[in-house]
Fold this protein.
Amino acid sequence: MTATSTSRKIPGTTLFDGEQAKKGYALNKMCFSFNDAANRAEFLRDEDAYCAKYKLNRIQRDAIAHRNVLELIGAGGNVYYLAKFAGIFGLDVQDIGAQQTGMSKDDFKAMLAAAAVEV
Amino acid sequence: MATITGVVTTSHIPSIGRAIAKNLKQDPYWKKFFDGYPPVHAWLEKTRPDVAVVFYNDHGLNFFLDKMPTFAVGAAPEYVNADEGWGIPSLPPFRGDLDLSWHLIESLIAEDFDLTTCQEMLVDHAFTLPMKLLYPDDGPCPIRTVPICINTVQFPLPSAKRCFQLGRAVGDAIRAWNSDARVVVLGTGGLSHQLDGERAGFINKPFDVKFMDSLIADPEWATHYSIPELVELAGTQGIELVMWLAARATLTGSVQCVHSNYHIPISNTASGLMVMA
């Protein structure tokens, strides 16, 4: 009926559209709460209780337990909120990039640097 | 009437905040990035703006998915930065300009833009770091600000064409503002990068180079692409180029490139900088 953002498939890319936003609301709401240092500490004190408080479903809870970004995206996570989750563990966007692409961080950084020499 | 002194478009990568805090500007990794800014400082010194209108995108500091405005205009006496969760130092509050905020709101709604207006608005790194790059001295930012936030979190996003139209209307409104203020317009974000998915690390230098060139000679070039097409070309976060389009669109007539810089990579991003007037 309408041309939605999901009608176009880009390899290795999930557009965070209404479908994802619905699916991931609880997970993203929890990760949004990590803007606050007290909430980050509370998560670290009792991860199970914190995830229960935000009513994560089983898939979301497992993805959080696995610290796995692709699983978190599959569970409806949005990268901007997930970055706050990753921040709890001191992980930066290159750590996340390496994990998602299955590379070492050094290889991932080398791939980024190689983009500079493309014509 | 107010005048627009020009447009500055710049990347807003969070790690810039860490590099500034740790004084790494001359570090080999950072030097080519930070060396892009002294010519901007000289241009600001010469053109002496009083106010900055800043097109930027919030990354989950002020807005959550409970309420996600497409276009949000700040109407606050000051804009406060806060903890974003991953540890870059917060910067002091930025002074607003209520007269310009409400003039923009009235003008844009009269031009059929359906805005969200914000009398309180936290500003994240996408607003604060570009201001700090332009005004690096210690202490509060010396000029007043009006933030305009464009949604790039939740699809569907406003089209590139619509963002360009928004910028055009903002430019017209600034020029019609009954004030002797000098206004610089910022567009922050980009250039090509992607943080999420198996395609994380995607950078497209040929596209970025073409995009930067287009802003001078053919600024509506990128508006002919759909948002998904632009995501494919520039990455899921490279879509922040719509801020550059909106900022560029505030200028009319013949536009010169005063200064530009482009460097790969900073963090996961192709960093870009342009001054246009």
Chain A touches chain B through 54 residues (CB under 8 Å). Chain A has two domains: 16-88, 92-119. Residues 16-88 of chain A form a domain with the Protocatechuate 4,5-dioxygenase; Chain A fold (CATH 1.10.700.10).
